[in-house]
Design brief:
It is a single chain. This protein has nine helices and nine strands. The protein is α+β, with helices and mostly antiparallel strands. The chain has a single domain (about 5-290), classed as 3-Layer(aba) Sandwich (oxygen-dependent coproporphyrinogen oxidase), CATH 3.40.1500. The strands form two sheets. The chain has a seven-stranded antiparallel beta sheet. It has a two-stranded antiparallel sheet with strand order 7-8.
């Protein structure tokens, strides 16, 4: 286990992704380095009110503590009471144009330690796409990129992680998917450290190839108030998932994480309506009927 190599990879990945995003945006991202009183710190890279990204953030953090928070031990109670370290990259991008999808990517590493015992480590992460107006070309491209990231690690890996993503990014209280999925994995330590680290790196390295061609293809589509209104309504689903179901958000808040960096994932403008339904035969309805139900895009 080489914690230094993992940290070096994450910090370099943050720099590479931000460089590519700045080239698309045509403006720099804010850089905000911070320290956590309980131990550790991070670097938040953020843009707000951009021409392309209404809000976007690419966060690196490396934090530690003496007691595992409840969200981290809910599925692994045997780790309660251990010292821990967590590090990773977490990004969320909310474009201004409603024809451009929101996207999220996360790659992370966790270590739980106890005197006299071997450290327990694992990797996790994934990437997913949340369109407001669906395009089959975009969905297929994004999922083919996810497949390419995982193909070197076994032909069944993509399908396993794709199904995991469909189940995870699901609003149980709405009986509705958040978006069109992608890939998701957690507790990855079944192979060697080198194998798990290489898989995690491949996911991180494929994100911009998966997402930025979609932004370039859709960003110049003309839109109006109707599309912006529907985008704000669907962003409400994003907020609901992150605040009610997302384990990463809960872990960050329960572990005394930096609130500004954790809630950076939320979109800047959101709307809710009471018992609203899209107009029959509309492009808005098509999102619900043709894109949100899980399907095989590869």
């Amino acid at each position: 286990m080489d914690i230094t190599s993992v940290r070096d990879y994450f910090t370099c990945l943050q720099d590479r992704i931000v460089d590519e995003l700045e080239a698309v945006e045509g403006a720099p991202f804010l850089r905000d380095a911070w320290e956590r009183p309980q131990g550790g710190g991070g670097i938040s890279r953020l843009i707000e009110d951009g021409k392309v990204f209404e809000r976007g953030g690419v966060n690196f953090s490396h934090v530690m503590g003496e007691q595992m928070p409840a969200s981290a031990t809910a599925h692994r109670p045997e780790l309660a009471g251990r010292r821990w370290q967590a590090m990773g990259i977490s990004l969320v991008l909310h474009p201004r144009n409603p024809y451009c999808p929101t996207s999220h990517m996360n790659v992370r590493f966790f270590v739980a330690e106890k005197d006299g015992e071997e450290p327990v480590w694992w990797f996790g992460g994934g990437m997913d796409l949340t369109p407001y107006y669906g395009f089959e070309q975009d969905a297929e491209h994004f999922h083919r990129s996810c497949y390419a990231a995982l193909e070197p690690f076994g032909v069944a890996t993509y399908h396993h992680f794709k199904g995991w993503c469909d189940r995870y990014f699901f609003l149980k209280h709405r009986n509705e998917a958040r978006g069109i999925g992608g890939i998701f994995f957690d507790d990855l330590n079944q192979e060697t450290f080198a194998h798990c680290f290489a898989l995690t790196q491949s996911v991180g390295d494929h994100f911009t190839d998966a997402y930025l061609p979609i932004i370039r293809r859709r960003n110049d589509i003309v839109y109006g108030e109707r599309e912006r209104d529907f985008q704000a309504y669907r962003r409400g689903r994003y907020v609901e998932f992150n605040l009610v179901w997302d384990r990463g958000t809960l872990f960050g808040l329960q572990s005394g994480g930096r609130t500004e960096s954790i809630l950076m994932s939320l979109p800047p403008t959101v709307k809710w309506r009471y018992d609203w339904q899209p107009e029959a035969g509309s492009e808005e309805e098509k999102l619900y009927t043709d894109f949100l139900p899980p399907r095989d895009w590869v």
